[in-house]
Design a protein that fits this description.
Two copies of one chain form a homodimer.
Chain A: H1 2-13, E1 18-19, H2 21-28, H3 32-41, E2 52-53, H4 54-65, E3 71-76, H5 80-86, H6 89-93, E4 96-103, E5 112-113, E6 116-120, H7 124-131, E7 135-138, H8 142-154, E8 159-162, E9 175-178, H9 181-193
Parallel strand pairs in A: 3-4, 3-7, 4-6, 7-8, 8-9
Antiparallel strand pairs in A: 1-2, 5-6
Helix pairs in contact in A: 1-4, 2-3
Chain B binds a DNA duplex through helix 3.
Chain lengths: ~200, ~200
DNA sequence: GACTGTGAAACAATTCACAGCG
DNA sequence: CGCTGTGAATTGTTTCACAGTC
């Protein structure tokens, strides 16, 4: 689905106004019926005998994925990885805004990263309300990940992205996703050995 | 598959010697038959009436995934993200070794990161042979990604992991995988809106 | 008796083929 | 006439159930 969106954005940039399911399928590397099914699933956007209006379709998908609003994120753990994410272009472009940088280390507090000031993790709860933070991102060392998660949960944030290679436990109503770099490397080395 | 491995390693650490498909399934959150099918697929490792020997099975999976050897990786683009990867624990633990740090910026060349010295990207080809590099990791800014890819291909490396939000084009015999942070965030915000 | 390996059954996803509309 | 939307056919994947082995 996110692939369709990306292709549609490229098409829009090239000035295309209308696209047929077969053309779009070709560009996305999938089957035309697949596309028609997917798009018909959440509303009838196509025009029979014509195709899909690129801009309309793009907006509809964005709305469906929740990418028509901006989402506020907090980073907990300002090491190299945290800093990398704060400055990362692709995240901003998709409507995600890093609005808070938190760390435990007293030596880091007050330091500027981009235009954010590092704040003590203990103040996360208070700041989460003020900044309307909806997503918490953990980029601490492994042994600090659970504590970071606790602070995020405590602050009433319901979604966590964990970059640290540790399982964390949270209440059932909090959504957690893990970024495991090794997964990508395993895929590559596997492909190098087998087909 | 990688999940089985992780669980098996935990079991081994706890001193378990034998595990049944049903127990393992419970720990991995899948169906017992699923596990038996998957494991039977690449050889018969189980003992009927008993179960699977944890250590043997772990070794077999490692061998299958290519994790019984160490893989040498080069990082191209030593910004915050590159540094984060060089120091990342989980990568080392899985048998991936970052053996080269490359950057274009003359001011960075010679600088130490961990116990690596930053080398000019132009010397990648020469160093790739010397260090036996099998995987290239791109952590440059978007506008440098294609150039980095060219250097990696030129050096005869056949697998690329691209962290930069840009499509890169390479010959057909080179495997490319993309790490898109936004994909994870989209998943989370989607879940926050819908179930 | 306990647990694996596997064919058969149930389920889900993908693709085809065509009716219906602009 | 061309392209969407959709039921029907196909393909793939997960689960069940049990025969076979330790």
């Amino acid at each position: 689905m996110a692939v369709y969106l990306q292709v549609l954005e490229e098409l829009e940039a090239e000035g295309e106004e209308i696209i047929s399911s077969s053309k779009l399928a070709q560009l996305c590397g999938v089957n035309p019926s697949q596309i028609r099914k997917d798009l018909a699933y959440f509303g009838e956007f196509g025009v029979r005998g014509v195709g899909y209006y690129v801009t309309d379709l793009k907006e509809s998908i964005k709305h469906f994925l929740g990418l028509d609003k901006t989402w506020n994120c907090a980073i907990v753990g300002i090491g190299n990885l945290g800093r990398a994410l704060i400055n990362h272009r692709a995240i901003k472009d998709k409507g995600y805004r890093i609005v808070g940088a938190f760390d435990w280390d007293p030596f880091k507090i007050g330091e500027k990263v981009g235009d954010l000031e590092i704040i003590c993790t203990r103040r996360l709860k208070e700041k989460a309300k003020e900044l309307n933070i909806q997503i918490g991102i953990i980029t601490t060392p492994p042994n600090r990940a659970q504590r970071a998660a606790n602070h995020i949960v405590e602050a009433g944030i319901k979604a966590i992205l964990n970059f640290s290679p540790t399982r964390i436990s949270v209440p059932d109503d909090v959504i957690v996703d893990y970024v495991e770099f090794s997964r990508y490397l395993i895929y590559l080395s596997f492909k190098l050995i087998h087909g």
